[in-house]
Amino acid sequence: MGTAIVIANDDPCKMLLLPKVLTRASMCQKLAQYKFNTNPDEAFIMGLLSMADLMLNQDIDVLCEQLPISGTIKEALLSHSGKQGTLLLLAMKFEKTELLGASDSTIDALNKFYLESRSWVTDALHGLDCISQHNYRKTATYYK
Hints:
Layout (H helix, E strand, L loop, with lengths): L1 H8 L2 H25 L3 H10 L2 H5 L3 H7 L4 H9 L2 H14 L8 H39 L2
Helix pairs in contact: 1-2, 2-3, 2-7, 2-8, 3-6, 6-7
């Protein structure tokens, strides 16, 4: 999460994307635990990286070649295949409200995961905002 915040802090537009990136990562993690029986930590990383092309202004295939990530994550990011790819597609379809044919229980679970994820993101970013404001005040006081 720290790297994503540093990258986003470099550009106001990327800062606006950060909550969406972190929400998707958290949703992927929760989906991995809930339905897909895959590694939740890998799912979180995959969710983060799924928007890395926007955050870093590079094609996702180039990023996948440069980063030391598992073949499973590369496959999910590049072709949306395997369990991780299906999980990522589900999170992305939820974001776009393209869940035709999904069961009520799946939609309920996705709504729950989304709200939990947004709450976590809000708390995490609020905490960083408080720290940054505190450091700004200390620096401003120092230079008076």
